[in-house]
Amino acid sequence: MESKVKKVAILANGGDVSGFNAVIRAIVKTAERNHVECYGFIDGYHGLLKNNYIRLSSADTASGILAKGGSIISSSTNANVFHYKVIEDGKEVYKDLSEQCVQNVKEDGFDCIFTLGGDSTQKSARDFSLRGINVIGVPKTIDNDVACTDITFGYNTAVSVATEALDRLHTTAETHDRIMVLEVMGREAGWIALESAIAGGADIALIPEIPYDIEKAAEAIKRRQAIGKNFAVVVVSEGAFPKGGEVSVVHERDGGKGVINIQLGGVGEKVAEALEKLTGLTARCNVLGYMQRGGTPTAFDRVLSTKYGAKAMEFAVQGKFNVLTVLKDGKLDCVSLEEVVGNNKEIGAVQGGTPESNVRVVTMDHDLVKTARDIGISLGD
Q1: Of 204, 224, 368, 376, which residue is least crowded by CB atoms under 10 Å?
Q2: Residue 261's domain spans which residues?
Q3: Residue whose C-alpha is closest to residue 75's, from 28, 23, 119, 17
């Protein structure tokens, strides 16, 4: 049966990751094989609001992008069109401009919008689905914290970058008898910190899911000193915090309702200072930062992104809308966007990491936690 879908559009939203372009390429190629026109909104939800889009084709605009980092259609951050900042009479005010987005989609004749993004992006996607827009989400984020899927595209590349950094820090730590602390991204989820710690041979991994006792971490280093190893490598997730303490924040802003208004950071330096005092070893902190996001995707992420993009377009052809494309137990599938957002039902409330949000975090029965403990990595508890 011929598909009723004839014209679709893609938008990329949130922080950049390696794999954006591989997903775009796969959607475009699969669309062309099904005689579907494909377009891309420039700058995510901002582009949807401004109705700024381009034609995507495997012959030109979407050609040669498989290994390219970033997004050829850009990506917006903190763009909540349900609570959007505008200037009126010289003053900043917030308005719900989502209806303009809905009108744009209908007037443009798009049969489906593909939303490439994390939990906040998919929350807005779900809200648009309630306004009559056909949406299919693709789970993106280096943090690996999107609900209902085993892995997000961009995560593997971030872990690989963190692992390479640990390999390099390891030689410096051993050469100079130092504690080398690597602070990685992750916000509420410690996936990057935990997996890179295992892959990079770290001695300690501090993650948001386990409030750490710095004394316990220091004890792990002292045990190493007792057997003649006067150095240590520590991985700290940016969202990690001590027992009874709070997360470290480097910047706060007023970006309006429903977006992330705090920038995490600084915990790595705090951990380094504390461990130096407790162990007597010189400690240095390295913040990996945006290095985790950029550059060429790994082979794993190229394949995963391609699978996600192709499957998402297949769902569109089949008429399966208002879902998130997921990988569960090694198989591609989809779940409803309602399931993805969990209890975060309020229209326009897009911020993740709240009690109502369905963010996927590391559980204590996960194999990564068990493996880390089995091989002697201290989790600070």
Answers
A1: 376
A2: 158-292+364-374
A3: 17
Q: Find the catalytic residue in 111, 119, 127, 143.
A: 143
Window from 50-64, 103-117, 255-269 with minimum mean pLDDT = 255-269
Cα distance between residue 222 and residue 217, in whole Å: 9
Give the whole-angstrom CA distance, residue 184 versus residue 323: 30
Q: Is 143 known to be catalytic? A: yes
**Pair (11, 145) in one structural domain:** yes
Residue 21 belongs to what H/E stretch?
helix 20-33
Q: Residue 153 pLDDT more than 60?
A: yes
Name the token pair of 225: 């000193």
CB atoms < 10 A from the CB of 64, how many? 11
**CB proximity list for 343: less than 8 A, separation 6 or greater:** 356, 357, 358
For residue 314, the domain's CATH number is: 3.40.50.450
Strand partners, 225: none
Count how many domains the chain has: 2
Work out whether strand 84-88 and strand 249-252 pair parallel, antiparallel, or are unpaired: unpaired
| Same-domain pairing of 110 and 181 | no
Dist. CA 333–CA 305, nearest whole Å: 14
pLDDT at 291: 92
348 occurs within a structural domain: no
Tell me the torsion sign for CA atoms 370, 214, 189, 224. Answer: negative
Tokens of 375: 């091989």
Question: Is residue 349 pLDDT above 80, yes or no?
Answer: no
Is 231 found in the same domain as 370? yes
Find out whether 258 and 351 touch, Cβ atoms under 8 Å.
Answer: yes
- pTM, two decimals, is 0.94
